[in-house]
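Request: Have a read of the protein record below and say how the chain folds.
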Amino acid sequence: MAEVEKGRKPSEESTDDSEEEDSEEEPKLKYERLANGVTEILQKDAASCMTVHDKFLALGTHFGKVFLLDIQGNLTQKFDISPVKINQISLDESGEHMGICSEDGKVQVFGLYTREGFHENFDCPVKVVALHPRFSSSNYKQFVTGGNKLLLYEKNWLNRWKTSTLHEGEGTITNVQWRANLIAWANNMGVKIYDISTKQRITNVLRDNVSLRPDMYPCSLCWKDNSTLIIGWGSSIKICVVKERGHAELRDLPSRYVEIVSAFETEFFISGLAPLADQLVTLYFVKENSDHMEEEFRARPCLDIIQPLPEGYEEISSDALTVRNFQENECRDYRLEHSEGESLYYIISPKDIVVAKERDQDDHIDWLLDKKKYEEALMAAEISFKNIKRHEVQKIGMAYINHLVEKGDYDTAARKCQKVLGKNMELWENEVYRFKTIGQLKAISQYLPRGDLRLRPAIYEMILHEFLKSDYEGFATLIREWPGELYNNMTIVQAVTDHLKKDPTNSTLLTTLAELYTYDQRYDRALEIYLRLRHKDVYQLIHKHDLFSSIEDKIVLLMDFDKEKAVDMLLDNEDKISIDRVVEELRDRPELLHIYLHKLFKRDHHKGQRYHERQIGLYAEYDRPNLLPFLRDSIHCPLEKALEICQERNFVEETVFLLSRMGNCRRALQMIMEELEDVDKAIEFAKEQDDAELWEDLISYSIDKPPFITGLLNNIGTHVDPILLIHRIKEGMEIPNLRDSLVKILQDYNLQILLREGCKKILVADSLSLLQKMQRTQMRGVRVDEENICESCHASILPSDMAQNFSVVVFHCRHMFHKECLPSPGTIPGVQFCNICSAKRRGPGSGILEMKK
């Protein structure tokens, strides 16, 4: 592996903080030295250039040799081209043809799998050569070479090479790149682009820093795509885009033009460029005047990933590379080549070749694990589990759990077990025993599998025993949460029983024991414990497991615990526990018996009728407010018994009701007047009974009591003629609010008169309306045809021979008769009624039409 050191900008200070921040930043690329055959070649020779194809590599050396290598650097073929330095190698897109130029002026273009070729010797060094990308096609047999001028070679139809000069006179051609129909080259003055399809030069991008020697700081060219050229020269970078001109702009100008979309200066000398999506990979050599750089760091080549901006750039990452003999190299000794197919970047130096590639998910996980970011590593592995090759999700998870345990974060480690261990029983049991060893069984207890995957019962029992020793609440929680099938129930019951011997009143242990008995279907024991503890789940237990036969002798206990729930349960299950059985159990607890019978009466007035007599005393003792409603609603209670009880306890209202119900209304009224002294209630009672004698008694009793007289005057106007009362008032008696009472009587009288007159008007109007309607109805004609029949003889109402004489009577009710079929007229002379309607009492329908012929 090539050594890589994270780089810093020259302006940054070498503080500990910045170094710590750098160390936390993940590299974007990973590096490895191209070895195998390359190592042996560069031990004896030095690399001068290299070209990359998706299938192989072509390496040129200072001793004039060209080596073909596979992607791993293994030698596959060797060509002895020249005794001097190879300047450039060019391959077409298919990788079937190769062009080579050397320092002694030799140019060779030949097929790797054919015998065709071009060989030429020039009298000056040839620095560059470039084949047409589609050179293997017979229509594109073209290539260019460059020394002191740029020459284009084309094969004509006679299979001979034709030469044409594209450019000369501006110094040595130092670089050339051919993409589709565009050729870009660099000389001492700048960069030119030539369109081979239109045979026009379309731009000239001038060189910025003319003070730098072109041979020491050569221009780097790279096509990002068929229309975007990246230029790096000295310390400047430009991104140029070739665009089509509009038809209106053409005139004598080339059909294309170049727009510089980004241009900026760097603090380093550019040795090579390559695209990475919308970013750039730059190989640079540190400037000699970078005083802030350390000497060791300054000498190394650096590979940066930068984000170009219109007038600047943003550095994404920077790596300093330790290549062999880097101390002896200069800017011109480094080159950067890239493979578009796999995003591989080759850093070529005379004695070393380093391959940089984008880090994959495995590399990302390696970095996270190295930084002890286990949680992020686990998440990354889970997301990309289909793409990772060197890692396994479970192993990463186990490393994370080990890390958490070492940190002492046992709760988090236990929680992660659920996710990491999955359904691997062996791993689960190993982890449980590890947590037991470190005394943290409680931490892992809530995360143990309890569904389809289940561990051995001994594992769960071990954890339960651990909780039972020190944490009764935690033990109870586990018993509630864990299914009873996970462990041996009898073993745990015995353990709880042993602990209860030491602490027999511990409610937590007792409740848990009841739950264990429930799991074991020993419901009677569970019920005893719940009742003893007055536990709220006792009713749920009874319902769920139908334990009504077990509670027949425990009804008092249930009602002492929660009267409302107990009574509702008993009433909802009368078929399982009879009313008689409940009454028998509650006979010694009359207050509870009253609650039960009261709710029973509310549900159904007739079910407990045999206990209504007993209920009278219960209501009188425990619930007098509901006694009167009970007496009103019950038709089964003995009135004499009720009257006796009410009179004993001096319950006036209830006694009044019973007396009125038994027909002794006068005595009832007397009690209201004498004991309650409530004239309003007396008047209301008289109104309910609607008895003239009661009114007379009421008036007689009230005649010498002015307040009672006022009450009567205010209330009896609609029931008794007020004159009868007024006549009996003694002359000179002072009656409170007499004037108001008389005014009210007159107002009530006027109101009655108005109501009668209003009703009369309505009645008259309705009668008139109905009379008019009846008249209109009776004035209508009635259709008589052959389909109608006589309602008496059921023959057709019309004779078959219409020439004969006939007579027909039709009533308003639409019944029809032959006249001779009608019975004799009624007692009213001249009025005839329909027999059918008269018989059905529908009202007398008189004949409305008599047809004769």
User: Anything to note?
Assistant: Residues 436 and 461 are 13 Å apart (CA to CA). The two ends are 135 Å apart (CA to CA). Residues 6-22 have pLDDT under 50 and may be disordered. The longest strand covers residues 312-322.
